[in-house]
Design a protein that fits this description.
Blueprint (H helix, E strand, L loop, with lengths): L3 E6 L4 E6 L2 E7 L5 E8 L52 E4 L10 E9 L18 E10 L4 E10 L4 E10 L5 E13 L5 E8 L2 E9 L3 E7 L11 E5 L10 E7 L4 E7 L5 E7 L6 E3 L4 E3 L2 E7 L2 H16 L13 E3 L1 H4 L5 H14 L3 E4 L27 H11 L3 E6 L3 E3 L3 H5 L18 E3 L5 H17 L4 E4 L21 H19 L4 E4 L9 H4 L4 E3 L6 H11 L8 E2 L1 E3 L12 H8 L5 E3 L7 H23 L1 E6 L6 E7 L5 E8 L10 E2 L9 E6 L3 E7 H7 L1 E2 L20 E9 L1
Parallel strand pairs: 21-22, 21-31, 22-23, 23-26, 26-27, 27-28, 28-29, 30-31
Antiparallel strand pairs: 1-2, 2-3, 3-4, 5-10, 6-7, 7-8, 8-9, 9-19, 9-20, 10-17, 10-18, 11-12, 11-14, 13-16, 14-15, 15-20, 16-17, 24-25, 32-33, 33-34, 34-39, 35-38, 36-37, 36-39
Helix pairs in contact: 6-7, 9-10
The structure holds (2R,3S,4R,5S)-2-(hydroxymethyl)piperidine-3,4,5-triol.
């Protein structure tokens, strides 16, 4: 079971957070500010590590803090929550604009509080614990005398995860209002710069592509200013040692539990100190803090691993799957669904939908999801958003009638919504044109002919809540897909005065979270899946409310290999919405086998995004087998330990595997991207197995391959040689050419 502890030594003023595997050490420095000493493998608890910080160095051109001495400069010190301009010239964690025009701050240590467990962050998503033994929390209060502002830095160390969760909280006890212009969730000064910087970047249809670059002097950053965490960059970065790979070596992951504008950066100074900073993007952020008011930053989570990138990811997976996701669906296997979007787009009526559902039921699908186009005048992109009542031309008996027909077939019913948006052609917009985010006197740009509702205003959130509440409470609805299809432009609010306009991006996200919180508590049995034009808001903030997310609109099996592989660095399989869609694929027009599409989609929540009536009998038989397979193995896939084995970003093969907690069962997914003739004999080392156990290995859950011990499979490898041109394959046609896949099912005897 182990232990999580926090010690404070009053004499050295050193804080030490630890569990059985990691330590995080800080101390109060001579200037009263907090210094960072160490984050890494567990250190003995009682030692004084003050010598880890470089406090006494004379260097030409340095500026010094104390009069008449050349020794103490913040520029040469590793700090915990730094600010620019008082001998440190790097980008800091905090900046406060003050009435006298200054932005210099000096936060000095006052006191600390150590408690068992982990407090909630009001209004914000955050990791949690279920009992006080699972974690310890340290809150350090610092104070800036001149402006009377308190800064409380919170750190939680978990017993079962090699993770530290952090946040910062500001309270203005002063006599004057101040403006927070930078309030990061995390700052970490590391003693060297021998790291690779990993980011996960892309665009619609190609989200979270892994990019690795050598850390170099200067700033490397990713971020979003789009009002959503975005397809472009994910609020997750990792630093790994150059020699670290998936199975061994040191890596540190940084993840922000937030869905709006963010910045994640590493600044390497000329002395090879690496400063990692993460939080709300300071551009477009200015929070007015009047006397007596407070501000809470989102949570950031840092994971340290010496077991390679898989070790880092497994910590994030388990922490987020079991202590970030909430509700009845957290620990349940996910229903196999069919979604009508790519089957019909906007062109449907009730009979067409029921026909799709009936066929889906015949092959074993459990949940029918009605996507966009079911409400008010919404028969295309230009109208209806904002008016959340059923279109009775298309659905004569409304959502209640359709859901009943679906339920009568023996299936659950799910519904698409996009609650944050409005079309100009809608009753809502006509009644409340100032309810969109906009800047007075400036043109408002559209995205997909829609505008973003001003969720910074509680009355707007209330209105939307009440209209969707009516739908959800009058029909039997088991699942909601919550979409968000555009970035925010000309951000501003008619509901707030000029001094608050810099708060609107953040207030908007707080409004989204507030609505999610209300609806998930009012409808605790509904399974929520978040979505933002595919994976534009695939972030930990969303997972606090919705335990799964549509990973990408691109459901081509080949493309999905990279998307899901990249996504897995921070997020578990159970979060990844993954469907089999029609071929040629609607996003990249590629033709791949049904088998490949299924073999990739299994490693997610699994479902279909097509009209099964259009498949041949033979294909329908294959679909039946896929559903049978997923029902048999989804517990293992969605809750097992996940390992990346072969990287599609650097090679022609993608491979991953999941292993059950008791190591008795495992599934390996093996995917060849392009076919080459006369390939070599290949062995691929597996991971996470019981070395002493003997595993029976079957290909695609059918063909017996043989019996092998865990030791053989992990040390020598599994034979993965494929049967490309020139050799006989046991599979047919496309299966053995490009985009070819195999699953290996392992069962311990
Ligand atoms: C974008 C989503 O990602 C799609 O799956 C679909 O729901 C459309 N929006 C509907 O407008």
């Amino acid at each position: 079971m182990g232990n999580a502890g926090i010690s404070f030594d009053a004499e050295s003023k050193q804080f030490h957070l630890y569990n059985d595997r990691i330590s995080y050490v800080m101390k109060v420095l001579r200037d009263g500010q907090l210094g960072q000493l160490y984050f890494g493998a567990r250190l003995p608890e009682t030692r004084d590590y003050g010598y880890f910080v470089d406090t006494e160095h004379y260097r030409p051109t340095t500026a010094y803090v104390f009069d008449n001495e050349y020794g103490f400069s913040r520029e040469h010190m590793r700090q915990e929550y730094p600010s620019y301009g008082t001998t440190d010239f790097r980008e800091g964690a905090v900046e406060i604009a003050q009435k006298d025009g200054s932005h210099i701050t000096d936060f000095r240590y006052v006191s600390q509080e150590i408690s068992a467990g982990k407090p909630k962050l009001p209004g914000l998503p955050a990791t949690y614990v279920e009992s006080d033994e699972e974690a310890k929390t340290l809150k350090i209060t610092l104070h800036d005398e001149k402006i009377g502002v308190d800064l409380v830095l919170s750190y939680t160390i978990f017993r079962d995860f090699d993770a530290i969760a952090r946040n910062a909280y500001f309270v203005n006890h002063g006599q004057e209002a101040v403006d927070l212009t930078r309030a990061m969730s995390l700052s970490l000064d590391l003693p060297d710069a021998d790291y690779d910087f990993m980011q996960f970047s892309g665009w619609w249809g190609r989200e979270r592509q892994k990019v690795v670059t050598k850390l170099r002097p200067g700033i490397q950053s990713v971020g979003s200013l789009r009002g959503q965490s975005s397809h472009v960059h994910n609020p997750f970065i990792a630093l790994k040692r150059p020699q670290t790979d998936e199975m061994q070596g040191e890596a540190i992951g940084f993840s922000l539990v937030y869905s709006g504008n963010f910045l994640a950066q590493a600044e390497v100074d000329t002395f090879d100190v690496t400063r990692v900073t993460m939080g709300i993007h300071p551009q477009e952020f200015r929070w007015h803090l009047a006397e007596g008011e407070s501000f809470q930053t989102p949570e950031a989570v840092m994971v340290w691993s010496d077991k390679g990138l898989n070790g880092m990811s497994q910590n994030f997976h388990k922490l987020y799957r079991t202590r970030l996701a909430r509700g009845v669906w957290r620990d349940k296997v996910r229903p196999i669904l069919i979604n009508n979007w790519e089957a019909t787009y906007f062109d449907f009526d009730e009979e067409k939908l029921v026909k799709i559902a009936k066929k889906a039921k015949e092959v074993g699908v459990e949940l029918f999801v009605l996507d966009d186009g079911w409400f008010s005048t919404r028969c295309g992109e230009t109208s209806g958003l904002g008016d959340w009542w059923p279109n009775t031309d298309r659905l004569p008996n409304g959502i209640a009638g359709l859901s009943k027909r679906i339920n009568d077939l023996g299936m659950k019913f799910g519904l698409w919504v996009e609650l944050e948006m409005v079309n100009k052609d809608s009753e809502l917009y006509r009644a409340h044109p100032d309810w969109i985010l906009h800047t007075a006197g400036r043109h408002s740009s559209h995205g997909r002919k829609q505008y973003v509702l001003d969720f910074s205003r509680p009355e707007v959130v209330d209105y939307i809540h009440d209209s969707i509440y009516k739908v959800l409470s009058t029909a039997n609805i088991d699942y909601i897909k919550w979409d968000m299809n555009r970035s925010i432009t000309e951000c501003g609010s008619a509901g707030w005065g000029p001094e608050h306009q810099g708060e609107i991006f953040h207030r908007y996200i707080l409004g989204v979270y507030a609505l999610y919180e209300r609806l998930t508590s009012e409808f605790p049995n509904i399974l929520f899946e978040s979505c933002a034009s595919g994976g534009g808001r695939f972030d930990p903030g969303m997972f606090y409310y919705a335990p799964q997310c549509w990973t990408s609109d691109d459901s081509d099996g080949g493309e999905r290999l990279r998307i899901q592989y990249g996504t897995s660095y921070a997020y578990p399989v159970s979060f990844m919405g993954s469907h089999v869609s029609i071929t040629p694929n609607h996003q990249v027009f590629r033709e791949t086998s049904l088998k490949l599409r299924g073999d990739v989609a299994y490693f997610g929540t699994f479902g279909y995004e097509l009209d099964l009536n259009k498949l041949s009998d033979k294909e329908l038989e294959e679909v039946k087998e896929q559903i049978h397979f997923m029902k048999k193995y989804r517990g293992l896939i969605q809750q097992g330990t996940y390992y990346r084995l072969k990287d599609p970003f650097t090679g022609n093969i993608a491979a991953w595997m999941v292993v059950s907690d008791d190591k008795k069962q495992a599934i390996v997914g093996y995917y060849k991207i392009l076919s080459h003739p006369c390939t070599p004999f290949t062995l691929m080392k597996l991971a996470g197995l019981d070395e002493a156990a003997e595993y029976d290995v079957r290909i695609d859950d059918k063909k017996e391959m043989g019996q092998f011990t865990g030791a053989e499979l992990m040390r020598a490898g599994l034979v993965t040689t494929d049967f490309s041109a020139g050799e006989q394959s046991h599979e047919e046609g496309k299966h053995c050419t490009d985009f070819w896949s195999r699953l290996f099912i392992l069962n311990a005897k």
